[in-house]
Specification:
heterodimer, A: mainly alpha, 68% helix, 0% strand, B: 167 residues, alpha/beta, Rossmann fold, 2 domains, 10 helices
Chain lengths: 105, 167
């Protein structure tokens, strides 16, 4: 497993280093693990942001958005609703739906 | 009447606790893709996942495979939908009823382009009440749950609530 790991060196600003140190201290892990945790959390956040934007723009469906964000469909639906993105069903479509359901019994 | 349901509507109707009543009333079908998408929540003990698993085991919802892969791939490319949503549209297109229940924006768009009959979860709840399948109290509770989930526009749910309260 270790031979699959790659070395990544990066110059970081003092504010970012403070974040690394804080996570390291709070989570009681070394700084390498703290950097990995922060990158992973940031990746999740960015993926969710991208999924929400694509869904809001009508480019993708909920299940595809869930895949991008690394969430279940149920969790993605909660995120979509929490960000105020609503279904575009109209009152007319609703009425047509009722007619269809009641007529086909 | 037979109809295809996508993951989104399965989840919403399960949370509103009317999925089982609906499957007793109408013949409902899902694809393997939808089943797998919803069941991803089983590890987290999501109600929708546990309920769908039971309803499929009890054969109240049928899971259909053998859909045309080419059609599914085309739908995925044309509308940016995942395999579950694309499969649901393909399933509706291949079924006699040519009807889909979906609350997914892209799914609804694809259904309209392909001339499918379209249903949403809010009218399912109201229709269950109108047909006497669920009580007024249960209907109001289901509509309030849908409102709390924040998925639908408020005026749509408010209109349905008014209809039920006056009905």
């Amino acid at each position: 497993m270790d031979e699959q790991k790659k070395f990544l060196g990066a110059r970081i600003e003092p504010e970012i280093l403070k974040m690394v140190n804080k996570v390291s201290e709070e989570k009681k892990v070394d700084r390498t693990s703290a950097v990995k945790m922060l990158i992973s959390a940031g990746w999740k956040e960015l993926s969710l942001e991208r999924a929400l934007q694509l869904y809001r723009d009508g480019k993708i469906s909920v299940d595809k958005a869930a895949k991008i964000a690394g969430l279940t469909v149920s969790e993605m639906m909660n995120e979509i609703a929490a960000h105020g993105i609503k279904s575009d069903e109209t009152a007319e479509e609703y009425r047509e739906g009722i007619k269809l359901l009641l007529a086909s019994d | 009447m037979e109809l295809a349901i996508d993951a989104c509507s399965i989840i919403l109707l399960a949370k509103a606790t009317v999925l089982e009543e609906f499957t007793k009333w109408k013949k409902t079908m899902i694809t393997e893709g939808v089943y797998n998408e919803v069941l991803e929540g089983k590890d987290k003990q999501f109600l929708d996942a546990l309920l769908l698993e039971r309803l499929v085991e009890e054969k109240k919802i049928s899971v259909e495979g053998n859909l045309r892969k080419k059609m599914i791939q085309k739908l995925m490319n044309d509308f940016g939908v995942g395999i579950g949503e694309a499969g649901s549209i393909a399933l509706a297109l291949e079924s006699k009823g040519k009807t889909i229940l979906t609350d997914n924006k892209q799914g609804r768009k694809a259904a309209k382009v392909h001339g499918l009959k379209l249903l949403g979860s809010v009218e399912v709840v109201t229709s269950l009440f109108k047909k006497g399948k669920i009580s007024k109290e249960k209907t109001i509770s289901a509509l309030r749950t849908l409102k709390d989930k924040g998925w639908f526009q408020d005026h749509l749910i408010e209109g349905a609530l008014e209809e039920v309260q006056n009905g």
